[in-house]
Amino acid sequence: MLQHFFGLFYLLAVSQLLTFTGSYADECPVQLNPQRVIVEFGGSVSADCSTSVPHTGLGWEASEGGVPMSRDSLITWRVSNLTEWDIEPICFINYNKGQCTVPLPVTIYKTPDSVSISTVNHTGPMMEGNQYELQCDVLNVAPVQNLIINWYKGQTLVDQTNFTDTIKTPVSKTSKLLIRPDRADDGAQYWCEAKLELGEEGPQPPPTAPSKHLNVEVFYKPKHSSSTETISINDELNCTVKANPAPTYSWQSEHLKETITSSVLQSSTISSGNYKCIASNSQGNDTKVFILKSTGSYADECPVQLNPQRVIVEFGGFVSADCSTSVPHRGMGWEASEGAVPMRRDSLITWRVSNLTEWDIEPICYINYKGQCTVPLPVTIYKTPDSVSISTVNHTGPMMEGNQYELQCDVLNVAPVQNLIINWYKGQTLVDQTIFTDTIKTPVSKTSKLLIRPDGADDGDQYWCEAKLELGEEGPQPPPEVTSDPLNIIVYYGPIINENKLPSIVPVFRGYPVEIVCEAEGNPTPIISWNLSTTDIVYSETLTITESTPEDLHCIASNSAGTTIRRVKVSIQGISLNYILSFAAAGALLLIIVTLLIYVWKKKQSTGSNRSQ
Length: 613
Hints:
By secondary structure, the protein is mainly beta. It is built from 3 helices and 52 strands.
């Protein structure tokens, strides 16, 4: 029974002490103003620590600007030229419950020495449809975790890069932007900007440093807005088209007897008929046919109607089109290398092919009416690709965070390539497109490449590509698509320590060990160790801290992709005389209770013994 009493005494005493300790730790009776400071490197900084309770000493512990213990109710930490990146000022107070401390978070920032933009592995003009990489270099900036690199095209924000490094001292950082310029980008200006987002307490507006502008010159082939145009006499045949480099021109027609290199023909100097203009430069060529009609009612319109006015058919498929007229005529027919229809006196004739296999077919309906006129039927023959596949270029295995890799999409035997679009997807998000300007009608194989720079968030993502034939409203709906299998990527990235679970300052009360946890995310899984000294290393996520633990600890998380270190400062807290007296009082009270219980018990035993006699 006595053992039971003393066990009860022990439990009550410990709970009493823990109650006191918890109450003490909940709140330290000092106020910091401001509660956090953000200051430029080399700048002046100050913060007040005040209290409204009686105390025996109030002071600041700091490697710069420390304030000795004072009996004042307000003391100021002040540094006129702050140059220590890792400074951690702590306000402390000694009062009737012992000593407690409150750290002042300090963020020291530095704007970059320079911000510059450049192209990677390329000089000179860019080619339309090709992919290029731009690079933004930011030199000596801090803290990098507050740095944002913004990318602009003109005045439009096109991309952002954030950083998760926790290093406080200045570092240099690089951001890269992948672009695939087209003709509309010729003359565009790209630039980047380093921005320090330091929160509401920081300078407003946030400090920014822009780069110079990078002017982009894009080479692109000629491309007319339409492939044919009907012109009346007295109008000009204007083949002028925008291209870079500037195009040269040539004309073809049975009515031309000499070589013409100008972009414009005056219709008054030539006969009615068809005139083909070819605009060319180093990037390719484009053809436009001008149909010059003579004056008079006949020339205004060829009195036949095609239905449909354009046909789009899969290679080997069935196709038909009607040619009709509502005027008297001496004969109409279809000229075609397949399915030709001889001249007839009917008002409707049909061109029909059951198995179309001629890629360059050009059926023409003609009618003899006040002479002869013709109307061509545009035919587009398409073929879906035999296969679409995705692969990495010159790489196998996991990718390393921050490195650049090239993915390749191979599309085999597709036509017509000018209607082909290769779409790149990351998961379900469209990330890039490749279009083609080749005018070849027969099947070809095409390749598209995508540059990626994966980070830890991309680990496990799937990339895939899709070949899509955009054949317009007359084509099949939805447009034909063939997709690749997904490519799963594994990204190795350095450890990221969970700072929410591991504060930078850990208070420890004498006699009461504290267990702290260092958790880190990374791929491969990080190895966690605690560096207590140059020779004392503990390999574990958890560490038990006592009053004998060194003041400065380092959690080290390492894997093959990198190492991250988190510094932890141990702050030993004493137990005040008030706690000891409270503990003694509780013990004395329990001792009295135990003594009384023993007395009552013995009294009952004695009484029972007398009765038995």
